[in-house]
Write a structure and sequence with these properties.
mainly alpha; 9 helices; 2 strands; globular
Length: 201
Amino acid sequence: MSAREEFIDIYQRAIRREGAGALLDYLTNRSDFFTAPASARYHGAWAGGLCEHSVNVYHCLVDYLARPRVQELYGLDYTGESVAVAALLHDVCKVGCYRPGTRNVKNDATGQWEKVPTFFYEDKLPYGHGEKSVYIISGFMKLTREEAMAIRWHMGFSGSEDPRMVGQALQQYPLAFALATADMEASYFMEAPERPGAGAQ
């Protein structure tokens, strides 16, 4: 099953609220969500990387929330719909932001400069990162406060916000902490360009 097929399957099984169909139609037919990279040079920096990253984050979040310690000691318990909304849609802010192109890289073996494919980031709606995802999603369907906060703060401490605000958000909205953890796991362990098999799908 391709990342696109898996994304659509999880989305349609888990997300049933009003407006979900319209949002999926937008992602499928009126955006580059399924062909865009997740970044220009780092994790998921290949065509289709954004969708693949979203699916990876979903699986990482499901696994994190299934841990006995998380359930029994921390008491984290979210519906399958909230988990799917937060994980699958946290990065819709990246839709329409990447333009394919080339850059020059020196070949270590020959010493010659070569053109290699890359992506350039050009945000036509500079509304922030997590907050932009919340804004886009909210145009189609309602989010719970916990979902909105998780998506807004999914960058955790690797964003550019005041660390005190990040800490308060992660403490008050544990799904935000869980999503940030899942996002980092997918980005650094599953999708880093130097990892074997990254971008194979």
